[in-house]
Specification:
- This protein is an all-alpha fold.
- Helix content is 66%, strand content 1%.
- About 2% of the residues have low confidence.
């Protein structure tokens, strides 16, 4: 049997943290005189009660966390936080079902950005702030998980990023605490700078804070139905581009840069590939945009780069219906949904480093065909890539595409049209948010989908955020054997 005490202890601590965070929108609603402060207060009390209860009932040593426990812990945390994070949505004046509330909460925690809410311009301020906080906390959580848990579990080649002195799963908890301390400080500083930059562009203090929380976390929830298009300000787009990119780079490199190792940030091959990918797709998308628009080139460039960065990083902000540019644009943005940002960031998708590994493998195979007697070694950042990493990356790449295909098929069987089913499945697994087409596209919404589709997509968001293997392994009989 799996020892559950460490799992319940950590879950309790994080639930207590979530319950404490609920008091922020409660206090804000109380300050502005909105009655929803009672909903947040009640949700906070219940979440705190359960969280503190679990923590005290299971307090003890956690340093002996095993591999099996780490797999289960990761899934339990995300599902539990989502379930309790949905309470304010379900009990508020929004008048939505728990299915919709769970979907919105899962979209927030996983920083997906897909929403079922409409009328955001007149929505309760506490709800808007809570959506942003969920994404901010989820973004921070995935950074810590990518640094501390996934390398130990060897998920999809993440062992490439194993932190020094982080050799066994038994060291997960104390080491994660040390790493989190540095990451949290940097995360908060970047968020504050982003909020200040948004304020200087003309946003209100509230809008600036909400969008700062969802930009750095590459989540994409907005306080406006029209997203950033509401502000009709190119400088808003520029700020968003900068901090979406900031959130999509490895946060460990920021720690190294702060310690004086600035060269590590700009010398990392994954970072260079990330910027190169943005450049290539921006040029292609600009060509597509130019064929149907006649605005000045400067406007096109900003608009194109903004939407390319937004989709590629999985943020999901929108300022235009880019799926109406041309058929070429539809294909480009569909591909962009899968790419994602760098490992150890708030971004999502397959991740840049996995494409590097795949291309490196292809390069060596081609050279071996040309020079049969040659010896060619796949390398990442100058270091040889082991066969274990290669197989892990290829396995996750295959499972990612398989998960997308299965979810798209299920959505089609429910009755969704082909474009909606394909783009919604891709958006969920890649944690992007908006899909393509009039229903779930950049100017659409997920509210019209049936409940069954929302539960399927919620599972897809969880799959994508937890790197697929972490979830699927719990459904194998081997995992539950002694």
């Amino acid at each position: 049997m799996i020892e559950l005490r460490p799992i319940l202890l950590v879950t309790g601590v994080l639930l207590a943290t979530l319950g404490s965070a609920m008091m922020i929108p409660a206090l804000y609603d109380l300050t502005v005189g909105h009655e929803d402060w009672l909903i947040f207060a009640a949700s906070s009390i219940i979440t705190l009660f359960v969280g503190v209860g679990l923590a005290f009932a299971n307090r003890g040593r956690t340093e002996t966390l095993s591999i099996k426990q780490a797999f289960l812990l990761t899934n339990v945390i995300w599902l539990t936080l989502t379930a309790f994070g949905a309470l304010p949505f379900a009990w508020s004046n929004l008048d939505i079902s728990y299915t919709d509330a769970f979907f919105e909460s899962m979209s927030g925690i996983t920083t997906t950005g897909a929403t079922i809410l409409t009328g955001l311009d007149n929505a309760p301020p506490g709800i808007l702030l809570w959506r942003a906080l969920l994404q901010w906390l989820g973004g921070l959580g995935i950074i810590v998980m990518a640094i501390s848990i996934l390398p130990i579990l060897q998920i999809g080649g993440m062992q490439l990023f194993k932190v020094e002195a982080f050799d066994t799963a038994g060291k997960v908890m104390p080491r994660a605490t040390q790493i989190a301390a540095s990451i949290v400080i940097i995360y908060i500083i970047f968020t504050a700078i982003c909020a200040g930059a948004y304020y200087l562009t003309g946003m209100s203090v509230f809008d600036a804070i909400v969008h700062a929380l969802t930009t750095l976390s590459t989540g994409g929830f907005s306080s406006r139905d029209a997203s950033l298009a509401y502000f009709a300000n190119e400088w808003v787009e520029v700020v968003a581009i900068v901090f979406m990119i900031v959130g999509s780079l490895p946060f460990v490199l920021y720690v190294k840069a702060y310690q004086g190792r600035m060269r590590d940030l700009f010398g990392d091959s994954q970072v260079r590939w990330f910027f190169g990918t943005i450049l290539i797709f921006s040029i292609l998308a600009w060509i597509s945009y130019q064929s149907v628009h006649a605005e000045p080139h400067e406007t096109r460039i900003i608009t194109v780069i903004f939407n390319v960065v937004s989709v590629m990083t999985g943020t999901g902000y929108a300022t235009t219906a880019y799926d109406n540019w041309s058929s070429m644009a539809v294909v480009l943005f569909f591909i962009l949904m899968f790419i994602g940002g760098c490992s150890g960031s708030t971004s999502c998708g397959i991740k840049i480093f996995r494409f590097q590994v795949i291309f490196e493998m292809i390069r060596c195979r081609l050279q071996a065909v040309i020079y049969p007697k040659g010896v060619f070694v796949e390398r990442y950042n100058g270091a040889p890539i082991s066969d274990t990493v290669m197989s892990a990356v290829m396995g996750l790449f295959f499972l990612f595409l398989l998960s997308f295909a299965v979810i798209a098929t299920l959505l089609s069987l429910i009755g969704l049209d082909t474009l909606t089913a394909l783009s919604a499945a891709a958006s969920a697994v890649a944690n992007v948010g908006p899909g393509l087409g009039p229903i779930v596209g950049p100017v659409g919404n997920y509210a019209a989908l049936p409940d069954s589709a929302k539960w399927i997509l919620s599972f897809g968001m969880l799959l994508g955020r937890l790197e697929i293997f972490t979830v699927i392994i719990l459904f194998t009989p081997t995992y539950w054997r002694s």
